[in-house]
Fold this sequence. Notes:
mainly alpha
Amino acid sequence: MPLSDTTLYYFYNYLDVKQDITDFLFxxxxxxxxxxxxxxxxxxxxxxxxxYTTLFPHYLRHTFATxxxxxxxxxxxxxxxxxxxxxxxxxxxxxxxxxxALARNVKYTPLSNxxxxxxxxx
Length: 122
C-alpha cells in the first residue's frame, strides 16, 4: 500500500515510541492489541466529542477513497489499495469525486462571474 511521506514520518515515529514491546502493531496503553471492539469504542467516543450523528469505520474508508480520487489518485491504484476485485466499486468514488469537484468549482465558471447572470439575493 502506498503511503505518503507524512504518513511514513508519523508511522516511523510511532514505531520508535512503541519499541517492540509487543508483537502487535497497534496497542492500547497497556500494550494489549487493539481489537475491533476497541476501534468501535474509540469512534463512539470521538463521535460524541465531535457531535457527529454517525461515524463508522466504513465512513472513514469511504471518505479516504473519495478524497483519494478527488486529489488526483487514479482508480486502478484505489482498487488495489481497497482490495477490490473489479474497478466497478471504484467507479462509484470517481462519480462522487466528480460531483464534489463540480460543486466546489461552480463559483469559478465564467457566467457565475458576470454580474448580469448572477442571481439576485433576496
